[in-house]
Amino acid sequence: MHSNHLLLEEPIRMASILEPSKASFFPAMTKIVGTLGPKSRSVEVIASCLNAGMSVARFDFSWGNTEYHQETLENLKAAVKSTKKLCAVMLDTVGPELQVANKTGNPISLLGDGLVVLTPDRGQEPSSKLLPINFDGLSKAVKKGDTIFVGQYLFTGSETTSVWLEVSEVKGEDVVCSVKNSATLAGSLFTLHASQIHIDLPTLSAQDKEVISSWGLKNKIDFLSLSYTRHAEDVRQAREFLNKLGDLSQTQIFAKIENMEGLTHFDEILQEADGIILSRGNLGIDLPPEKVFLFQKAALYKCNMAGKPAVVTRVVDSMTDNLRPTRAEATDVANAVLDGADAILLGAETLRGLYPVDTISTVGRICAEAEKVFNQDLYFKKTVKYVGEPMTHLESIASSAVRAAIKVKASVIICFTSSGRAARLIAKYRPTMPVLSVVVPRLKTNQLKWSFTGAFEARQSLLVRGLYPMLADPRHPAESTSATNESVLKVALDHGKASGVVKSHDRVVVCQKVGDASVVKIIELED
């Protein structure tokens, strides 16, 4: 299976480019996050998205109310049941996002070289001369010559649906701007982005807290995507807020890096957060175009070395309206995988795009092809060197399991874990084969009732490259006293056989705890 993995350092054989791609049970090791919305919220479409390879559903609260999203979530649950595919839930906060509300919904046309006034007076009617915004402090934050972008959803980069403004003067609370390009703003809500300017608003707004403590708590969300994370303190405050809600103390916080401020404090944010989302839409505006790729490579490298999942956004914008991505986009997806991304996040492409299912399967196919040429050997050496010596106990077990699996050409690594940490560490070394993470539930009590943990841990591995979770039967302990933990292992292997990942005579590497010791063993399967 793995002998056909050629590396980019080798001359790429024409044959491998001309051969059609083979379908496999795991479409790609790289995960896909799909944003559910008007075009992707029916049970049928969600089920097709899950079958196409979506493993995390993102709910974007910058539009739509809790009832709307609840309905979508109920449909997701039905789709998960019918497809028998696990799917995690991510809540995306609004954060300090500046918006222009177009209550009438009529399109607004702005002409290049004209003037437009941004005013905090929300009572005003939006027109081509005046745009009311949701922030009172803009006039204090900007100065003459600053750049402001306005567009629907995010700036599509298409210069007919988003507009580039330059501040020409500040009049009291109003900001007068000259229009740089002609555009028509359609829809009821436009995002406004002031380039490289500090916006004095809390990262978790009152509206966000309300949504998390009602919708988020009720649905026990797996991930919180913290929009506009600018400092490590933002993550700490969000964590405190989640801990107060009790049931959400296990929710993972992914910091969304969207501007220069977040970039400046990237290292300390990475230490606090459980993972990072590189919001390339907004960052592409804050950064000069020639720096965008550098930031992506540096940020992904740091996340990989820290063993924290990194998610890349805005990859196939053109598939919102088209069935095929552009050549640049197809290359971009592959490069994100080669740079080390764990997951690709689709926004408008699945939310309001015409081809949500095709988009997911196209991105999945590109990821799978890129993974075949990912230089695992070089990556492994780099990671071991970065971790340094002496390694921690867990780190050395994880790296040994991956090294063994590659040397014996194992078809899968099976890892028994209760917190999910061991499996994530194995995935950190990017093995070329899938890692089945068998999450063994633990019994816990709050003095009133008993409950099992494990579902959170299983779903949270759905955002890590190469990790495939499976919930074990709680009656089978993972930390067995005997060295042969047959029952759970048999279930895991049966699962592997049924899904076509393992077949007879394959080798499998198993990583588990036996008593106090951690054991890595190699098994050869019989007929």
Task: Record the SSE blueprint.
Elements: H1 14-18, E1 31-35, H2 43-52, E2 54-60, H3 66-83, E3 88-92, E4 98-101, E5 108-110, E6 115-119, E7 130-132, H4 138-141, E8 147-152, E9 162-171, E10 174-179, E11 183-185, E12 189-194, H5 206-218, E13 223-226, H6 232-244, E14 252-257, H7 260-264, H8 266-272, E15 275-278, H9 280-286, H10 292-306, E16 310-313, H11 327-339, E17 343-346, H12 348-351, H13 356-372, H14 376-387, H15 393-407, E18 412-417, H16 421-428, E19 435-439, E20 442-445, E21 450-453, H17 455-460, E22 467-471, H18 486-498, E23 507-514, E24 517-524
Parallel strand pairs: 1-2, 1-17, 2-3, 3-13, 6-7, 13-14, 14-15, 15-16, 16-17, 18-19, 18-23, 19-22
Antiparallel strand pairs: 4-12, 5-11, 6-10, 8-9, 8-12, 9-10, 20-21, 23-24
What is the beta-strand fraction?
A: 15-25%
Parts with pLDDT < 50 across at least 5 consecutive residues = 478-484
Large-scale geometry: globular
Query: What's the average pLDDT?
Result: 86
- Count of runs of 4 or more consecutive helical residues: 18
